[in-house]
Structure formats: structure tokens, C-alpha cells
Amino acid sequence: MMHILNKKKLNQILTGWSTKYDIYAPQKVEDYSQFLPLGTADELALNEPHNTRFPPKSFFLPQSETLLKYDHRLKQLKEVVITPKPRIIFGIRPCDAYAVKLLDTVFDTAEYTDPYWKAKRNATLLIGMGCNDPCQTCFCTTVGHGPFNHDGLDALLTECQDNYFIETFTEKGNKLFSDLPAATKDQQRQVQEMQKKAAKSMQPAFDTTNLKQNLNQSFDSKYWAAISESCLGCGICTFLCPTCFCFDIVDEVQRNERIRNWDTCMFRIYSLEASGHNPRPTRKERTRQRIMHKYSYWIDHAGEIGCTGCGRCIRNCPVGLDIRAMLRAVNTFESETVNA
Amino acid sequence: MSETIVKLKTEIERLLNEDVIDVVIAFKQEDSPLRPQPAFFRNVAELEVLEYNSLCQNNLANYLTRFPQDTRIGIVVRGCESRSVNALIVEKQHQRENLYLIGIPCHGIVDIKKIFKKTGEEVTDYSENQDEVTVIVNGKEITFSRKELLHDSCLRCIHPNPVDADILLGDPLPEGDPNIARQEVESIEAMSRDERYAWFRHEAERCIRCYACREACPMCYCTECFVDHTAPRWTESDVSQAGMQAWHIIRAFHQTGRCTSCGACERACPMDIKLTYLTEKLNKDMRELYEFEAGLDSETQPPFASFNLDDKKRFIV
After folding, report:
1. Among candidates A29, A137, A320 on the partner chain, residue whose Cβ is nearest the Cβ of B37
2. Is 70 exceeded by the pLDDT of residue B250?
3. Which domain holds residue B234?
4. Which listed site, A89, B1, B16, B230, has its alpha carbon 20 to 30 Å from A304?
5. Which residues of A sit within 8 Å Cβ distance of B?
6. Based on the domain organization, do A123 and A231 belong to the same domain?
7. In what order do the strands lie in the sheet with A2-6?
8. pTM for this structure?
9. What is the dihedral of CA A154, B271, B114, B150, to 10 degrees?
10. Are B210 and A229 an interchain contact pair (Cβ–Cβ within 8 Å)?
11. Considering CB atoms only, which of B32, B63, B208 is closest to A239?
């Protein structure tokens, strides 16, 4: 069933939830939007043309997280038990929600469960906001998703004139909106048309048919040195990526804490070994790793591409590198030099 | 194609054809008219994508230290870039005789974020002249005066002309006003201590430690940055208050007498953090206390890198 909510009543419904849940929603910080606890900023930034600059993966995998506390002199160890209050992430874009679901294949598997991830995941509802006007830098449809995909979401809002139309996909999501009136058949049709139109407006950014194969064949190619020549080697593309999950565990001895920090394959020290040897000594190997991981190794490990097409790496690269162009190049590169 | 690009292309073609240099560091435009990229030209056929406009936001001197010292490099230098090149030569990071400096007097870098703030991000085309910038948004043409879009660092620029060049493309521009350059730092100096700390915290604590500021800076070329040093570690590793504040302060202090005020750090920052107010303060101190400005020539050592028994200001020894 599709519910209807007048935009003017949004605040009322959010306030209603806030007795039971901590609510986070995109709000303006400087000139970008960021998920913040509701009520701390002046206004919701739900009409930003694209998603928040900082990825919502941080709700489940914070950039820095204390795993253990200890006293090394007393030889005492204290586990950090996470008991998050139930919370709602409101206004998350479909690409970011799907990214969280993808990360479940890393942090919550049959073999291994990360208790820190799991506790926060169980306590969180994801209420999505579909994208009526996908950006030029968005490419979700190219990697198999879409501006109104609901995979990973508890509910999805579609903005249409003065109203939000709400589809729910889980029991918990349904409960949040069950008091709202149902949309008419005409309205439902109108919403579905809008959703289709948005998806249709997005041109394919690159061909994924043989991409994995092409990437694997180009592992030793000169191409990587050329494509990475202007790369600064900073961590923007990976830190802002909603699916990058690499981390480093560090003992902050002065604070008696064991911390997990985000790490990135784009940093030299990421792959530096204790012996001093670095198997990825230059930006060439590191750039290759980033691309190969997203579009080849993810397929090995999860059966699908590890990119949801959010476009953050494109919008925020300080030297204008565009992952779509890199992948188009990989596809053409194969046909030129496969026998070279 | 602007007159500057035509001249630039002709000059680069000559350099490559006559085997004057091995590689030219300039800009190209391939994927989006809004995001020119640093480019490395090694043969004439590649020059089709050559670009030069005010959206070329990187400091190309940043790439010099990636090449062996005997590589003959041609490099496009605007005012700040030429001073960065000088500062690197002073620090023996490349040899002047192996560099060919293609100087361009600079009208200032247009801050893409300032455009987006006015128009939203769906800009499909960009063009400019000396006074105006025109963008196409949703099929509509919008024109701005260039000055309202310039990056803050460029509004403060004192030396828009290359201080050294083997060829200069374009006529030299008038120097900037040092009084305007000082204004931001002076306004921060005028704050109370608490206000200053609040300002610093607001900026430093949005940091995500991606180190784009470091990687975009020509003078940050250490093989191992202090934050990457693990035994012993010099700062907290995480995004704690202390860790982020330490990064911001120490990064800036390492630039004392070396920063050329190009603002590449600030333009690279994904979190819109103001970074140059720290280095500008140090630059101001360097000018006032030591009458020194980084990169004005390729010989004078920065005050903190030199030692002289006749030093008048003997406050250290």
C-alpha cells in the first residue's frame, strides 16, 4: 500500500517518532548537507540535489570507533558493549541505503559477525528519499540500481508536489506510517510514472557486461600508470564512498583504548608491511586496487559490483578524476591491447 | 579556444618537437568542462585535450617532486605556481636547468563551489573572459562577474605574475594589494582568545583526515608525513578532537616560510574547511619579523631553514 503525507505534516510525524527514536536527517552544514540529529540545525535539507557529502555508512562503521578499553598496568580489559537507542535515518538516498546492505556482506556474514556493526544495524531504520532529479554525476542505473530502488530500505518517500508518497517494505517501516491515509490509484500511477521517468533520464555511464573480465585482463597494463598520474593519493574518494569499508586497528595507549579507524588503499602506508616492503609502492598500484576492488573483487566476494553509483568520488575529486571515464577506458583498452 | 590556449599549445608543440623537454605538466579537459585535470604531455598528438582556464584549480608544482631530478620538465606556472617552483628549487627538489617554465599571468582561480552555491550543481557548460564567467544551467545561460567567483586565496593574491619564467604568455598584470591580503588574518587576530579557539575548533573538527590538503600541497613532499609515522606515533590516529587539531596545527607549522598562499589545500578539502587562515598568519609573521616571502627567488633559504652566526635576531642562541 502507498501512503500519502502532506509535506506540511512532516514535522509532526518526525516529532511523533522522536519519543521512541533518535532521528537523523540531512541538514545544512557549511555549503553541504550532513546527517545530524533532528533539531540541532535550522532546517532539513531534503531538497539537496544529491546525497549528503559524508556517507551514512558512518552510522554503522564510524570513522573512529573504540573497540576495547584496557589498563595495561593492571592488565585489565574492558569490552565496549554497544547498546544504541533505536534510531531512524530519515531521508537517506537509495544508493546509500543499498550500500549499507552491501556492507552487511562484509560485517554480518554466516561465518563472522561484527558485533559493533550488528548492534547498530539492528537498532536502525532506514527511511529513504527517492531522487526525482538525479545529478549528472549519479550513475546508479549503470551499476544495477535506480533512483527509487528500495533494496535495503524500510520505507521510501517519493516527493510529488505538496506531498510525500510512502511505500513501506518491512514491518517496522510499515508501523511508522500505518496511521497515514492511502494514496488513490491515480496518485499511485502518477508516482510510479515519476519514478520511471527519473530512472529513464539517466544515461548508461559505462558498459558493465564484460567489465570484470576486461579489468582482470588489464591488470598489468600501462593504462594504470597513465590514469593515476594526476591522482593526488588522498583519501577523499574512499572515505566518502558509501561502500568502502577498510579499517585499521590502533592502540591509543595514552588513552588506554583500542580504536578502529577508517583506512584507505589510496594511502601509501595502508599496504606498507612491517619489513618495509610495500606491495603497492606507487599510486599506480593503489588506484588499480581501488577500481579492481569495486568492480572485480566485490563480484568475487558478494556476487555484485561494490559501487552504488552515488557519484561522491566524482564530485569531490580534487583533480577531477572520474571513475566512469576510467571504466570506459578500461573497456576500450581491452580491445586495443589484449594481444599486445 | 582562448588566445592563451593557442599560444600555450604552440609553445608546448615546439618544446616537444625540438626535444627541449621530456614532459609538460599542464591541464587537460576530457570528461567535464567543469573539472579540468592536471595532465602530462609527452607527445604532440595528446595536445588535443589541452586546457587552460580559471577552473584549473590545482597547483601543478605539486607534481615536480614525483619526477627524478634529471627529467626535463616543462610546466605551466601562474604566480603562485612559479613561487612554489622556486621554493622547491631552494629545497633542492628539482634543478632549475632541467625546468622550462611556461609563465601565464593569472586572473585568479574561479572557485567551482562558489558557482554551485549560486546555481546548483547541474552546470553543463562554462566559458569565461577576463571580467566575466558564463555557465549554462538547465539550458539557461547565467553570467557572473569573475570577481564574485574567485577563490578566497586568489582574492588575496599579491603576485599574480610568475616571478620566473622562460616564456611569458600574456601581459603582466598589476600586483595585488597587501592590505587586502592581510584583512582576513587581521580579523582573526582581533578576536578574543575564546572566539579564536571556537573558530579553530569549528574548522579543524570537521576534518575527515583524508589528507587531501597535504597531497594537494607542493611543499608537502615528505616521504613519510609525521601522521604516518607509527613508531613512535606523534599524534592520535583517530578523528578525535586532539588528533584533528594536532593535524591542522602541525601541518600549518611545517609550512612556515614555505607556503606560497596558493590555496590548493583549501580547494582540495572535501569538507569545505578553511585552511589558509593558519598559513596566512604564518606568512604574515614571516613578512613582518623576517621580511621574507616564500618563493620570490630560487636561492634564499626560508628563515627557519637557515643559520647564520651574524644573525641580528639572536633570540634562539
Report:
1. A320
2. yes
3. 2-111+150-304
4. A89
5. 29-32, 49-50, 53-54, 63-64, 133, 135-137, 229-230, 232-236, 239-240, 248, 250, 252, 254-255, 259, 261, 264, 267-269, 315-322, 324-325
6. no
7. A2-6, A163-168, A155-160, A124-129, A87-92, A22-29, A32-37
8. 0.95
9. -170
10. no
11. B208
Residue A336: pLDDT above 70? no
Q: Do A28 and A136 have their domain in common?
A: yes
Q: Are residues B102 and B214 in the same domain?
A: yes
B175 touching chain A per CB within 8 A: no
Which contiguous run of DSSP H or E holds residue A117? helix A115-122
The answer to whether residues B39 and B155 belong to one domain is yes
The rounded percent of chain A whose pLDDT value lies above 70 is 97
CB A168 within 8 A of CB A4: no
State pLDDT tens for residues A203-222. 999 999 999 999 999 999 98
Number of C-beta neighbours around residue B316 at 10 A? 7
Phi, psi of A314 (to 5 degrees): -80, -50
Residues A134 and A280 in one domain: no
Chain-centroid distance of CA B247 in Å reads: 19
pLDDT above 70 coverage of chain B, percent: 98
B228 to chain A: nearest residue by CA?
A269
Facing residue for A261 by CB, picked from B39, B211, B237: B237
CA R_g for chain B: 20
* Omega cis (within 30) before B232: yes
Model ipTM?
Answer: 0.94
Cβ pairs bridging A and B (under 8 Å): 111
Half-sphere exposure of A181 (CA within 13 A, CB side): 9
Same domain, B104 and B236: yes
The string of pLDDT tens digits covering residues A233-252 is 999 999 999 999 999 999 99
B171: left (phi over 0), alpha (psi -120 to 50) or beta: beta
Q: What are phi and psi of A38, to 5 degrees?
A: -60, 135
- Under a CB-based contact definition with an 8 Å cutoff, are residues A53 and B269 in contact? no
Closest CA to A86 of A55, A40, A121: A121
Tally DSSP H helices, then E strands, for chain A: 12, 11
Distance (Å, rounded) from C-alpha B28 to C-alpha B51? 5
Q: What distances in angstroms separate CA A126 from CA A13, A25, A56, A153, A156, one per listed residue?
A: 15, 11, 10, 5, 9
